[in-house]
Each structure stands twice: as structure tokens, then as C-alpha cells.
Prior knowledge:
By secondary structure, the chain is of the alpha/beta class. It contains 16 helices and 17 strands.
Amino acid sequence: MNSLLITSTEESTGKTAIALALATLASAQGASVGYMKPKGTRLQSNVGKILDEDPMLARDLLDSTDDLAEMEPVIYSPTFIENAIRGQEDPDALRDRVAENFAHLATDRDLMVVEGGGSYTTGGIIGLTDADVANVLDSKVLLVATYREPGDVDDVLAAAESFGDRLGGVLFNAVKDADYDRVSTDVVPFLESRGIPVYGVLPRKRELAGLTVSALAKELGAQLVTPNVPTDGYIERFVVGAMGAEAALSQFRRTKAAAMITGGDRTDIQTAALEAPGITCLLLTGGFQPPGAVVGKAAERGVPILLMQTDTMTTIERAEDVIRSGRTRDEETVASMRELLAAHADVDAILQ
């Protein structure tokens, strides 16, 4: 039985999509594949119980009947972390639980895909960073990294050092077109000269980098004020309209694929946002219905308006959490990632 732990230099690198894509690719090749996420970090309420969505999706994709609690032995919630800091969690007992659950899940499996925490350092409070997990489970490690600037290579080197000989290699994900050649011709040879293999460089794909307006509305429980305006536009970031209209318009014109968040009573900001081509939708707060003139202009420009009952700060926090925790993950997302891996990565080397 082989064990592959997929970890990342930071949160929101596409780690889940990559882990599940690799698992389903191996399954399609005839292997019996299991999945485990020792530290549940993407928590949702399910019939009153806090569970991570990723093991649920893995179980569906792999047609598995494995027990969710066994697939996710540690619920790494804020309450759990606070208890661990107070000394109310036993690191040795947690390690034993992870090892025992893994051994049971791995029975009669050719490959176990293990997904790491938010980043490779998550779990340090209980002695279960991803490097610790790799040692406990005797796993080979795939490090998923992003690239926005040259300094990001420092993060890759630091992570590689923490895993030592267990590191199989690095996979760059969501690399922008402007950076793709630089990563391929400069960064990859540099890392390989330091003894760090690179399995591939995946280009940024819009549907994996953002989420649609309709998906955002569903995640936030927002009301659509413009029912006849399409909601399939993509959102990759948020901008906040908290200044004067002239300054706001200047800011809005410098962004793209953004949802603009402002109070529902700030009609001057709303009007300015509708003048900026990079604003994908308006997210209005406080439960204030926008005036008919704004709704009409939004419909004319094809910009949907979403309405939240919460205040601006709460809305910002919730919206940022949606982006930070990863886009809506589903079978379609995993299928798109499989295509990227097949075209731009050495899948056989990763799964070997």
C-alpha cells in the first residue's frame, strides 16, 4: 500500500481539488483508493454535527462507504484549538487515533490519499503538522505551491526542508499567464538544482480561480435583486466601497472580476461601481433595498445585485471566508483539475 500526503505552502492553493483529482485518476487506473483528512479544517454543520465537506465529497467521488468520522479523526475547529492551548487535548492520543484510523481505512487499499491541513504548518499546537502526519503515516509528500512573486520560492524551500526525504516533489498551481514562463524556465530549474523535483506547473483556470455570482449568493444566502440579470460571471476578489464616489470609481477601475461590497444606502458608491468594467456584481449590506434607478442601471449594464441583511463588516468577513476557504468544490471542479493534471503534470511520477 502506498500513501501520498498532499500539503501546501498556504491556504487556498487548490489542494483539495488536486488531492481528489489524483485519487480519482488512480481509481480510474484500477487502483483501490482511500482518502483521509486527519485534520478537518473546512467545517460545515451537517445535522447538528460539525463536519468537513472535503471527506464527504471524496466519499461520493470514490464510491466509498468509509465512516466520515474515521476519515477525519481531528476536528480542527477554533474551540479545539483553544482547548489544545489550555492543555486539554492529548497530542499522543490524537496521534494514535490518526494512526489507528489510517490503518483501518488502508486495509485492502492500493493507495491512500491523505489531505493536509490549511497549510503545512497547521496542527503544530498538537504536534500534528503535515510533516508530523507524514511521519506517523509513512507517507510520501506532494507539496502544492502558488507563485505570485519571486519571494514565494522562499516558502517552497522552507516547506521542503520541513519534510526532508519524505518530499516527493512540488506542484505549482494556478500560475498566471504572465508568470508561467518565468516559473517554468527560472523557478523550476532553480528548485531542481537544489534537489527538489517539480512535477508540473498548472496554469490558472478561471473556473477554478473564482466562483460565480450564483455560487456566491448561495454560499452567503444573499437575495438576488436583479432576477433577469445573468449570474454566471466570475468573482475572484472583493472590493469595499467605503470612501467618496470619485475615489471609489478610481479604485474600482483598477480591479477586475470583483464583487463590490457597500451599504445598501450608499447609492453614490453603487452608481460609481456600475461605471467600472471590472465589477462583476454589487453586494449590498444592511438590508437596504437599492433605489429603482440603481436597479435599472444594473440591469442595463448586466451587473447583478445581491442583498445581505447583515452589516458591512460581517458581510466582508463572510465573503472573504468564502474566497479563503476555497471555491465551491464539486465533481465538476475535480474533473477540471484532472484535465489540468493530465496536460501539465507528471501524474505517473506523483502516484508512483
